[in-house]
Amino acid sequence: MKMISKKLSGVVVAVSLSLTVPLAAAMDIGVGANLNLAGGGGTGYGVSLPMRFGNMMVEPALSIFDHSSDNSDPPFPSNTYNYQHYTLETGIYWRKEVVPSVETYIGGRVGYIKEESSQSYPGLSYSIDTSGYYIGPTFGAEYFFNKHFSMGLDVSLLYSSLSGDGYSGGQAQSTSTKDTYTQTRALLRFYF
């Protein structure tokens, strides 16, 4: 009977210790907004869903860049240009507090890219429709105003590979590009 009582006491102590840490402390989930400051996609914006687990962070994100222009300045012939760039990605980072309220993170991002562009001049037009992927390392820092709200900045070195179809004068042509570029992002995150 004493043996069962000791085992039962051990189980009660283990369960009570595990219940003192709320589940929310094991994982923080938030929403974020980012501004892509430079790189292969130009300046754009996006939304993300940061999830922090201990010293790790996983952050799925959706970004868009959209640019249009209509140029009809003499003496040049009038032309129009439209460009859309969409990405769906996930970043996985290891994070470390360096001083109170400041964390750094390092890891990588991988994503899917979809690009569409078209340009027309009098008597000439072309369009390109490509898709592919990108991957690369990322380093960033995040400042916490409080436990719920932060501002961050990160830099990535991304390798992209795109392929698709281009149309010029009504004729289709296959196109593919491979590129390496840096991308800097300013981020705002809110954790629940």
Largest sheet: 9 strands, antiparallel
First-to-last CA distance: 47 Å
Structural class: mainly beta
Radius of gyration from the CA trace? 24 Å
Shape field: elongated
Low-confidence stretches: 11-25
Sheet-strand content, in percent, reads over 45%
Mean pLDDT: 82
Count of extended strands: 9
Helix content: 10-25%
Our count of helices gives 2
Account of the protein in words:
The protein has about 190 residues and is mainly beta. It is built from two helices and nine strands, in the order ααβββββββββ. Strands 1, 2, 3, 4, 5, 6, 7, 8 and 9 form a nine-stranded antiparallel β-sheet that branches. Strand 5 and strand 6 form a beta hairpin.
SSE map:
Blueprint: H1 2-19, H2 23-26, E1 28-38, E2 44-48, E3 51-53, E4 56-71, E5 79-99, E6 102-121, E7 124-144, E8 149-168, E9 171-191
Antiparallel strand pairs: 1-2, 1-3, 1-9, 2-4, 3-4, 4-5, 5-6, 6-7, 7-8, 8-9
